[in-house]
Amino acid sequence: MNTRLAKIHIRNLRLRTLIGFNPEEREKHQDVVINAEIHYMANPAIASDDVDSALNYKTICKAIIQHVEQGQFLLLEKLVSDVLEICSEHPSIEYAEVCIDKPHALRFADSVALSLCYHKS
């Protein structure tokens, strides 16, 4: 069987967290919008049709929600890095990319976004 690389997309996960370093940002939760793409080797799941052989995106999403909603972050870079770490924990993951938007961060912009990616070495 040829190697099969699956891509999971988590799109527009809308959460609220404490993010920023200005005094007003430290007092009030703000919206963030999370997009993640996760590539993993899907051969075991394809061959067996067994749930335990697949990457469980619901588990990943729940971990992201818990971490973001319960956390406090000064920098968008730290938040994105933490979410990327959650997305790349499983050993079958070859690549992951996370982009988080902070809506209304700039007066005349819809949002400010930051992306980071992980490549398996």
Q: Could you explain how this protein is built, in words?
A:
The chain is an alpha+beta fold and 121 residues long. Helix content is 26%, strand content 40%. It has helices at 43-48, 57-70, 76-87; strands at residues 5-19, 30-41, 72-73, 93-103, 111-119. It is elongated and about 55 Å long. The model has no long low-confidence stretch (mean pLDDT 93).
**Total E-strand runs:** 5
Uncertain runs are: none
The mean pLDDT is 93
CATH homologous superfamily (4th level) name: GTP cyclohydrolase I, C-terminal domain/NADPH-dependent 7-cyano-7-deazaguanine reductase, N-terminal domain
Give the termini separation. Answer: 23 Å
Per DSSP, the total helix count is 3
What is the CATH architecture term? 2-Layer Sandwich
User: What overall form do the CA principal axes indicate?
Assistant: elongated
Structure summary:
Pfam families: FolB. With 121 residues, the protein is α+β, with helices and mostly antiparallel strands.
Summarize the topology.
Elements: E1 5-19, E2 30-41, H1 43-48, H2 57-70, E3 72-73, H3 76-87, E4 93-103, E5 111-119
Parallel strand pairs: 1-3
Antiparallel strand pairs: 1-2, 2-4, 4-5
